[in-house]
Amino acid sequence: MTRIGASAALLSALLVGGTVTANAADTSAAAVGSICYSNLPAQAHDTLDLIESGGPFPYPQDGGVFQNREGILPSQSSGYYHEYTVKTPGSSTRGARRIVTGQKTQEDYYTADHYASFSLIKYSC
Protein backbone atom coordinates (compact mmCIF):
# COMPACT_ATOMS: atom_id res chain seq x y z
CA MET A 1 0.00 0.00 0.00
CA THR A 2 1.42 3.39 -0.92
CA ARG A 3 1.19 6.45 1.29
CA ILE A 4 -1.61 7.79 -0.93
CA GLY A 5 -3.31 4.39 -0.82
CA ALA A 6 -3.03 4.31 2.96
CA SER A 7 -4.48 7.82 3.23
CA ALA A 8 -7.37 6.89 0.97
CA ALA A 9 -8.04 3.73 2.97
CA LEU A 10 -8.04 5.69 6.21
CA LEU A 11 -10.37 8.35 4.81
CA SER A 12 -12.70 5.68 3.45
CA ALA A 13 -12.76 3.85 6.77
CA LEU A 14 -13.48 7.03 8.66
CA LEU A 15 -16.32 7.96 6.32
CA VAL A 16 -18.02 4.57 6.39
CA GLY A 17 -17.02 3.44 9.88
CA GLY A 18 -14.82 0.56 8.81
CA THR A 19 -11.39 -0.52 9.97
CA VAL A 20 -7.97 0.01 8.50
CA THR A 21 -5.15 -2.52 8.44
CA ALA A 22 -1.59 -2.10 7.26
CA ASN A 23 1.23 -4.51 6.85
CA ALA A 24 4.44 -4.18 8.87
CA ALA A 25 6.38 -2.67 5.97
CA ASP A 26 3.86 0.15 5.67
CA THR A 27 4.01 0.84 9.39
CA SER A 28 7.81 0.99 9.54
CA ALA A 29 8.12 3.23 6.50
CA ALA A 30 5.71 5.73 8.01
CA ALA A 31 7.07 5.56 11.58
CA VAL A 32 10.79 6.23 10.91
CA GLY A 33 11.44 9.88 10.25
CA SER A 34 14.52 11.98 10.81
CA ILE A 35 15.62 14.66 13.25
CA CYS A 36 18.55 17.04 13.18
CA TYR A 37 21.06 16.51 15.97
CA SER A 38 20.64 20.18 16.90
CA ASN A 39 16.88 19.65 17.44
CA LEU A 40 17.32 16.86 19.98
CA PRO A 41 16.71 17.63 23.65
CA ALA A 42 19.86 18.37 25.66
CA GLN A 43 19.48 15.06 27.52
CA ALA A 44 19.74 13.17 24.20
CA HIS A 45 23.05 14.95 23.53
CA ASP A 46 24.23 13.79 26.97
CA THR A 47 23.23 10.20 26.17
CA LEU A 48 24.99 10.28 22.80
CA ASP A 49 28.13 11.62 24.50
CA LEU A 50 27.99 8.73 27.00
CA ILE A 51 27.56 6.22 24.15
CA GLU A 52 30.56 7.72 22.33
CA SER A 53 32.73 7.50 25.44
CA GLY A 54 31.53 4.03 26.46
CA GLY A 55 29.73 5.11 29.64
CA PRO A 56 29.25 4.86 32.52
CA PHE A 57 25.51 4.76 32.00
CA PRO A 58 22.90 5.78 34.57
CA TYR A 59 20.68 2.69 34.21
CA PRO A 60 21.64 -1.01 34.19
CA GLN A 61 19.48 -1.58 31.08
CA ASP A 62 21.53 0.91 29.04
CA GLY A 63 23.52 -0.80 26.33
CA GLY A 64 21.20 -3.80 26.29
CA VAL A 65 20.09 -5.39 23.05
CA PHE A 66 17.03 -3.75 21.52
CA GLN A 67 14.86 -6.49 20.05
CA ASN A 68 12.88 -4.32 17.57
CA ARG A 69 9.74 -6.27 18.52
CA GLU A 70 7.62 -3.46 17.13
CA GLY A 71 9.19 -4.02 13.73
CA ILE A 72 9.50 -0.29 13.10
CA LEU A 73 13.25 -0.12 12.53
CA PRO A 74 14.76 -1.90 9.52
CA SER A 75 14.92 -5.64 10.12
CA GLN A 76 18.36 -6.80 11.27
CA SER A 77 19.84 -9.80 13.03
CA SER A 78 19.51 -10.14 16.79
CA GLY A 79 22.06 -8.03 18.63
CA TYR A 80 22.30 -5.40 15.88
CA TYR A 81 20.48 -2.69 17.87
CA HIS A 82 21.20 -1.45 21.41
CA GLU A 83 19.17 0.95 23.52
CA TYR A 84 20.06 3.74 25.93
CA THR A 85 17.93 5.88 28.21
CA VAL A 86 17.49 9.58 27.54
CA LYS A 87 16.71 11.10 30.92
CA THR A 88 13.39 12.90 31.25
CA PRO A 89 13.57 15.88 33.62
CA GLY A 90 11.19 15.49 36.55
CA SER A 91 10.52 11.80 35.90
CA SER A 92 11.04 9.34 38.75
CA THR A 93 11.37 6.48 36.22
CA ARG A 94 13.43 5.95 33.08
CA GLY A 95 10.68 7.68 31.13
CA ALA A 96 9.85 7.01 27.49
CA ARG A 97 12.80 8.59 25.68
CA ARG A 98 15.55 6.41 24.21
CA ILE A 99 18.42 6.36 21.78
CA VAL A 100 18.65 3.12 19.80
CA THR A 101 21.92 2.54 17.99
CA GLY A 102 22.68 0.28 15.06
CA GLN A 103 26.02 -1.29 14.24
CA LYS A 104 26.64 1.06 11.32
CA THR A 105 28.53 4.27 12.02
CA GLN A 106 26.17 6.98 13.25
CA GLU A 107 23.04 4.88 12.79
CA ASP A 108 21.32 6.35 15.81
CA TYR A 109 17.58 6.63 16.30
CA TYR A 110 15.67 8.77 18.81
CA THR A 111 12.27 7.89 20.23
CA ALA A 112 10.33 10.12 22.59
CA ASP A 113 7.34 7.79 22.81
CA HIS A 114 8.83 4.47 23.99
CA TYR A 115 9.26 2.83 20.59
CA ALA A 116 5.97 3.91 18.96
CA SER A 117 8.00 5.92 16.43
CA PHE A 118 11.63 6.61 15.66
CA SER A 119 13.64 9.39 14.04
CA LEU A 120 17.03 8.75 12.48
CA ILE A 121 19.43 11.31 13.91
CA LYS A 122 20.98 13.45 11.16
CA TYR A 123 24.35 14.82 12.22
CA SER A 124 24.89 16.97 9.13
CA CYS A 125 22.11 19.49 9.70
If you average the pLDDT, what whole number results? Answer: 82
User: How far apart, in Å, are the first and last alpha carbons?
Assistant: 31 Å
| Number of domain units | 1
CATH class: Alpha Beta
What structural class do helix, strand and pairing data support? alpha+beta
CATH architectural type: Roll
- What would the CATH topology be? Nuclear Transport Factor 2, Chain: A
Please write the string of helix (H) and strand (E) elements.
HHEHEEEEE
Percent of residues in helices: 25-40%
Strand numbers in spatial order across the main sheet: 1-6-5-4-3-2
The dominant shape is: globular
What is the strand content? 15-25%
Quick structural summary:
The protein is an alpha+beta fold and 125 residues long. It has three helices and six strands.
